[in-house]
Amino acid sequence: MTSYASAGVSIAEGDRAVELMKEWVEKARRPEVVGGIGGFAGLFDASALKSYDKPLLATSADGVGTKVQIAQRMDKHDTIGFDLVGMLVDDLVVCGAEPLFMTDYIACGKVVPERIADIVKGIAQACAESGTALLGGETAEHPGLLSPDEYDIAGSTTGVVEADKLLGAELVRPGDVVIGMASSGLHSNGYSLVRHVFFDKAGWELDREVPELGGTLGEELLTPTKLYTLPCLALAAELEVHAMSHITGGGLAANLARVLPDTVSVRFDRSSWTPQPIFGLVGEVGGVAQADLDLALNMGVGMVAIVAPDAADASIQLLADRGVDAWIAGDVSEAGIHGDGGTVNLV
What we know:
- By secondary structure, the chain is of the alpha+beta class.
- The protein is built from eleven helices and 14 strands.
């Protein structure tokens, strides 16, 4: 007799996965969360927004791309959640928004409860670190579409910012200082290039010891995305910050240009920081030109803040006190001095 189970979908295993993840979801709560997981929708008490004069809701949706293949090949699934949360909440932070809650979506070929619980554990831990509630999610079993060991994850998040505290291009002006913040490594962008270089071209294995990296290739490639959420919220609250940029797909210049008005250009000084060895290794092993590295990878800079000149030193100290390595990386000038309006010149 044909059944749902014989078609490859196990309701019982899905239920067990929910039971295993409850412990971690509970750690990613905020006081505004109403009820627990298991309902058809997550509930969040929005009365907290009454304290705002003009609250603006911010939202973001994203995934982690092909980095999930590294987690699958290494059979290590409790860190990929940091990449998902980082891609979501730090997109909100660039406009000054505080992340309130997120939901996740896990699609897999076969529900393995322990594996699903590990994925959610990482998501929940990253939510707790960034002050975000994990409000709910969905785990979907797709036999025939994905192999039993394959999965993909995505999510969406919502945050809030007071209208008169909104950060963005309209605040940026000549004389502002550009603050770079160190990434933890590749984060979760450019992995199609990275995988092509190391696996397809060089034939390297994930357990290969790489002296330049101080460990195995797999350990480096699975390094979790650094979360900038709370340090950047503190920066915006305490000092004069005009704009921020999350350096993800498209690289440093393209992402920073997204928060510049047409009246200015930015000089970003390459000599102000040293990218981690993994970036040079991608270029060396793959014969990848610098321009292509710049386009695909963060090159060691995970977040950028543009601040008023008299806030530069204090910004670096505040970020350092909160565990973020930061430095003066460049400056803002009138359009035409460093390049066309709204552009970033890496020098």
